[in-house]
Specification:
Layout (H helix, E strand, L loop, with lengths): L1 H15 L3 E7 L9 E7 L4 E2 L6 H15 L3 H33 L2 E3 L7 E11 L2 E2 L4 E2 L1 E11 L6 E12 L8 H24 L1
Parallel strand pairs: 2-4, 2-5, 3-5
Antiparallel strand pairs: 1-9, 5-8, 6-7, 8-9
Helix pairs in contact: 2-3, 3-4
Length: about 200
């Protein structure tokens, strides 16, 4: 009975915070015929938790909580939190974008492709890390603004999509916030790629 109740609570949380994608501006026809797209990840506007903490506020608060439990773990977590952007979040997003576009359509998405005609800006707006207590858990949620711009003139926005509450979860248990958040970026990449293919390919 307890297991069934836990399952229902997990399913309810996923339904309640289902991802919402909305095209704010433009279309994706300009992608046809492109071989590569530059990608930039921006975290300057990111807020965290329901309290809408800034990154610095969140790091200070969470690090202090960890230090109170076990000396040294807070400082160690701070390093992992910052490096996760390059080691987990960006790779997860790019992996899913390329899974849908590279093999079938010959378009390669990656960072540092400064000669590409177009750039995709992944601007992280809000993150909820979620939690995992073994039997019960809450998935992470990632909200982003996704903008295609001209690489040479980033004020020229060709298309913009808002992605709200992309769920981040894994099979089994995942006790690291960064892993759950990474799955949120993977879900963002997958849903965004599917939206583009549906609308323009």
């Amino acid at each position: 009975m307890k297991k069934h109740l836990a399952l229902l609570l997990i399913l309810f949380s996923v339904v309640t915070y289902a991802q919402k994608l909305k095209i704010v501006k433009g279309d994706f026809d300009f992608l046809k015929g492109q071989k590569e797209i530059n990608v930039e990840f921006v975290y300057d506007n990111m807020k965290l938790l329901k309290k809408n903490l800034t990154n610095d506020e969140y790091v200070k608060e969470h690090s202090a909580e960890l230090e109170e439990k076990t000396k040294g773990t807070g400082k160690s977590w701070e390093k992992n939190w910052l490096t996760a952007r390059e080691l987990i979040y960006a790779p997860k997003f790019l992996e899913l974008m390329n899974r849908y576009f590279h093999d079938d359509h010959g378009i390669f998405f990656n960072q540092g492709l400064t000669n590409a005609t177009y750039t995709l800006i992944v601007d992280t707006i809000w993150v909820y890390p979620g939690w995992d207590a073994g039997v019960m858990k809450q998935p992470a949620k990632v909200t982003t603004q996704l903008k295609f711009v001209e690489t040479a003139n980033k004020n020229n926005v060709l298309a913009e999509v808002s992605s709200e509450n992309a769920p981040g979860d894994q099979w089994g248990s995942s006790f690291k916030n960064e892993d759950r958040i990474g799955e949120g970026y993977a879900k963002t990449g997958k849903s965004f790629a599917q939206l583009i293919l549906k609308k323009s390919f």
